[in-house]
Amino acid sequence: MANHDRVSERYYGEINSEESHEATRTRIHWMCREATGKRILDVGCSQGITSILLAREGFRVTGVDLEEESIRYAQGELAKESKPVRNNVDFRMLDITQWKVKTLFDTVLLGEVLEHFAHPETLLIQIHRLLQEEGTLIVTVPYGYHPFYDHKQTFYAGNLAMCLMPYFEVLKLEVHHKYLCCVARKRRKTQLHMSPTLKQVTEWMQLDHLHFAEVEQNHLRLMKLRKKALDQAVEQVKRLRRQENVEG
Q1: Which alpha helices (DSSP H) does 35-187 contain, by range?
Q2: How far is CA 129 from CA 49, 75, 188, in A?
Q3: Which of 55, 60, 90, 243 makes the best surface tag, with the fewest CB within 10 Å?
Q4: Burial 21-57 (b: 16+ CB within 10 A, else e)
Q5: What is the mean pLDDT of residues 105-112?
């Protein structure tokens, strides 16, 4: 089953809720701000919105995705842009883990990609190869459990950082809406058996504590609203039954 991630449509508010629209825009704008250098690889580019936004600012972007429908949509959106923007973007349908290109990139974007890998090291080794020395890796993943059929990983601050550490130095971890957002730098050599420092572990725990307290508070508010709506519906049913009994 294909993923059909309709990220461009969510970005422009054409589908889903206002909350989804705002979360998508926040995540994509954050990724664009963190990009460095001039040559960008957008892995899992979906409908191409991030690639196009960066191209409008003069970046040279290669957007790749496995889904033919997504690449076709991205190319259609790119065709609406001015010639300078069109010249800055190359959309390709391919499997990034099998790509043999020798081109090196200044920044690689992994926007909601890692959670689809049962063995993320397969992808990370390839990204490490494709990045310039001290190149930038930008990662966003859903924060915590999301019940999507193709999500093979659930990420929190600690296990995302540990996943990246053998190949990249984690520079920044933030949470925006429901996304865990990370900026990392390519290591000169991979170090497969690295252990985090006490300071790093403490920072990751503090981040998770802060944001999961907020998640739990939001769930409690939602449960209270639903209980109130249910109580009101039950009372309405009782009134209707009493009215029926009186009229009968």
Answers
A1: 49-56, 68-78, 83-87, 120-130, 157-164
A2: 25, 27, 10
A3: 243
A4: bebbbebbebbbebbebeebbbbbbbbbbbbbbbbee
A5: 98
| Tens-place pLDDT, residues 181-208 | 999 999 999 998 889 999 999 999 999 9
Give me the helix-helix angle, 157-164 and 120-130, nearest 10°.
Answer: 50
Residues 167 and 136 sit within 8 Å (Cβ to Cβ): no
pLDDT at 219 over 50: yes
State the first-to-last Cα distance of the chain, in angstroms, to the nearest integer. 55
Instruction: Give the three-state DSSP class for 118.
Output: coil
CA–CA gap between residue 77 and residue 71 (Å, rounded): 10
Strand order, beta sheet including 39-43: 89-93, 60-65, 39-43, 105-111, 131-142, 179-186, 168-176
Angle 133-134-135 (CA atoms, 0-180°, nearest 5)? 90
DSSP 3-state assignment of 233?
helix
Which residue(s) pair with 186 in the sheet? 168
E-state strands within the chain: 39-43, 60-65, 89-93, 105-111, 131-142, 168-176, 179-186
Answer positive or negative: Cα dihedral of 125, 126, 131, 132.
positive
For the segment 31-37, the average pLDDT, to the nearest whole number, is 98
pTM: 0.89
Give me the amino acid identity at 33. Answer: R
Of the candidates 171, 142, 173, the residue with the CA atom closest to the CA atom of residue 157? 173
